[in-house]
Amino acid sequence: MGEPGYKLVTAGKVTGCYGVKGWVKVHSYTDPVANIAGLGQWRVKRHGALEAFEVDQWKRHGKGMVAHISGVDDRNLAESFKGLEILVPADSLPSLEEGEYYWRDLQGLQVWGREPGSGEQRVLLGEVDYLIETGANDVLVVKATGQSIDDSERLIPYLPGDVVTRVSPEEGVIEVDWYLDE
């Protein structure tokens, strides 16, 4: 998918058409949603191939956005983008402060918790499958692996300094202050 060392990340999705002049509805995964407009050239993967395209106009619409794709001037052509994920260069994402992570950096990390009554003995709870935004805080959805303590899926609040005691993407580990019976 591109040149060696060139990484793309999913920044949103085309969810439908808007009007009859080639505009599309965009669900942005960025926060705030308008940040997707400044993340470099958008690409979609269609039929196994990457297609680059230019957005020549965009605007906020309700809780989301609508965008006009350059050269797409009718609803039928815009319809062909429906359901496609919007990919952007990973290096176009803003830099984060130390201790901050993009969700994609947390996915796949092993999650280690504590067994009740064991003191500091750590046990593997599973690995982060994905995250959920709840409004109050984000939640790690932790799926069991072959090496996990059991076969349970767990929902663990992502609260750094409280529930989440250590994150190390370099080591592939998240440590949580979370007991098996919680």
TrEMBL record:
Q: Where are the transmembrane segments?
A: none
Q: Where in the cell is it found?
A: Cytoplasm
Q: Where is the RimM N-terminal domain?
A: 11-91
Q: Provide one Gene Ontology cellular component.
A: cytoplasm
UniProt GO molecular function: ribosome binding
Q: Which InterPro entries match?
A: PRC-brl_dom, PRC_barrel-like_sf, RimM, RimM_N, RimM_N_sf, Transl_B-barrel_sf
Per the UniProt entry, what are the Gene Ontology biological process annotations, in alphabetical order?
ribosomal small subunit biogenesis; rRNA processing
Q: Which residues form the PRC-barrel domain?
A: 98-177
Q: How is this protein organized at the quaternary level?
A: Binds ribosomal protein uS19.
Please give the HAMAP family that the UniProt record associates with this protein.
Ribosome_mat_RimM
Would you identify the family this protein belongs to, as annotated?
Belongs to the RimM family.
Its domain comment says: The PRC barrel domain binds ribosomal protein uS19.
**Protein name per UniProt:** Ribosome maturation factor RimM
- The record lists the organism as Pseudohalioglobus lutimaris
